[in-house]
Amino acid sequence: MEEEGRKLLEEGIRKKLISPGRGELSTFPDGTKVVFHYRTSLSDGTVLDDSRTMGGRSKPMELILGKKFKLSVWERILITMKQGEVAEFTCDTKHTALYPLVSQSLRNISIGKDPLEGQRHCCGIAQIHSHHSLGHKDLDHLQANPQPLVFAIELLEVLTPGSFQLDMWAMTDKEQLDSVPQIHEEGNALFKEGKIKEAMEKYYNAIACLKNLQMKEHPGDETWIHLDQMITPLLLNYCQCQLLQGQYYEVIEHCSSLVFKYEGKAF
């Protein structure tokens, strides 16, 4: 453990153990799924994000290791933790430059928006230097003034490869695309049973999957348009769920974007 702490310090990461975990430290092979709560703070203690309260609900973060998550330092610190452990990691600026973009996506997800909304078709570093607004004053300030961040992590579960159903985000592009119609049908079945929240989550997962695939295509190309056409009925189903839950502002926002998109087009 002392050697690991020394390595972290050399990398510009300082770990503070809050509560020890249980059992042995996992070897964390690629494909391991980690489930954890996180709280992100500035060095002065100002909290930016907390997975226990984001979007008005407590929802832990899930990562599959080895999939090149945009904020790579999270993978680096998680592999030093035991299941059940709570620790704080102070990470130098070189590790936190992309956090504003990651936070924007996570905040979008927490309120049911497209996780890629507001992000351009360019790499993360280019987005950081483009100085466009992320839609949150604290993230805009952090983007303009990169600084060390403190991540308080509680590692809830460590699931070894093969011990869990493969997550959609770990599938190949073809597997993801082929899974969307089934997810859509599952959402429709849940909606008919009156399970609105569960149906809403299915629709959202399918939309986010298609948006992710769409980001790999050039806007206006045949494949991009096909994916866009697949998104529309899912988004309308999603809005129907939001309407039943009284989320009127979000429904207006999504439907207005669809009206704008198809304005002047004949069907």
UniProtKB/TrEMBL annotation:
Classification via Pfam families: PPIase_AIP
Top EC category: isomerase
Keyword Amino-acid biosynthesis: no
Main location group: cytoplasm
Chemical reaction(s) catalysed: [protein]-peptidylproline (omega=180) = [protein]-peptidylproline (omega=0)
Annotated EC: 5.2.1.8
Transmembrane among keywords: no
Domain PPIase FKBP-type: 31-90
UniProtKB keywords: Cytoplasm, Isomerase, Phosphoprotein, Repeat, Rotamase, TPR repeat
Localization per Swiss-Prot or TrEMBL: Cytoplasm
Identification of the protein by name: peptidylprolyl isomerase
